[in-house]
Design goal:
By secondary structure, the protein is of the alpha/beta class. The chain is 47% helix and 18% strand. It contains 8 helices and 7 strands, in the order H-E-H-E-H-H-H-E-H-E-E-E-E-H-H. The longest helix is centred in the first third of the chain and has 18 residues.
């Protein structure tokens, strides 16, 4: 009920820029995630945040951030994963990434190998679906940039967009509908969860094979 009332009082789309805006948007995102029943994250370049290992997340967040602050951000990101691992009513989480994201050695070979293995483990959960868009698919809406689609039991969907120090929430019906359509397109072009598992396993084996 609170989410529905807040959605009515909020402007259809909101944009935040800079450190203060970033904090406000993060608080809003955490609330939306807490209330969601399903989340789809299309993340073309990197593994989605809720599926990141600590070292992978630390490598992404390390640029220009003091170690203490970096550690806090990593712990916050790992804490958000409770939404999909909790025993009681975990949310349905769908991750869609480009195949190239599996080959980006973020944090180095060992960190990436651990990250890919962790994807396999998370993909075994009934409420988690991991899909890879193969290189052969050509251009897809995922190439236009990352987005998160949050869906709720008793409220309209919300889209979250993030780019460096700016962040956007879309509530406008037409705008959200466009991203729902984009989600359907990328899922149609992506490999099945079963084929994705096979691909990730092959990438791990290739990286571990001495050259």
């Amino acid at each position: 009920m609170k989410l529905t009332r807040d959605a009515v009082s909020e402007p259809p789309n909101t944009v935040s820029v800079g450190a203060s805006g970033e904090a406000d948007q993060m608080a809003a995102l955490l609330e939306f995630e807490r209330m969601a029943t399903a989340i789809t994250e299309v993340s073309p370049a990197v593994v989605p945040g809720m599926l990141q290992t600590a070292e992978y997340a630390r490598a992404i967040m390390s640029a220009g951030i003091p170690n203490g602050e970096n550690d806090k951000r990593v712990m916050m990101r790992l804490g958000r994963r409770d939404l999909i691992t909790r025993r009681r009513a975990p949310i349905r989480f769908t991750a869609v990434v480009l195949e190239s994201a599996l080959h980006q050695l973020i944090g180095g070979p060992e960190v990436m190998a651990d990250q890919l293995q962790f994807l396999l483990e998370m993909g075994e959960r009934d409420n988690v679906e991991i899909r890879v868009i193969p290189r052969s698919a050509g251009w897809t809406p995922a190439h236009a940039g990352p987005f998160v689609l949050l869906e709720f039991a008793k409220a309209a969907p919300v889209v979250h967009l993030e780019h460096h120090r700016s962040s956007v929430f879309l509530r406008d019906e037409a705008d959200v509908k466009a991203f729902v359509s984009a989600r359907e397109d990328v899922e149609r072009m992506a490999m099945s969860p079963e084929a994705t598992v096979g691909l990730i396993a092959r990438v791990i084996n290739q990286e571990e094979t001495p050259k």
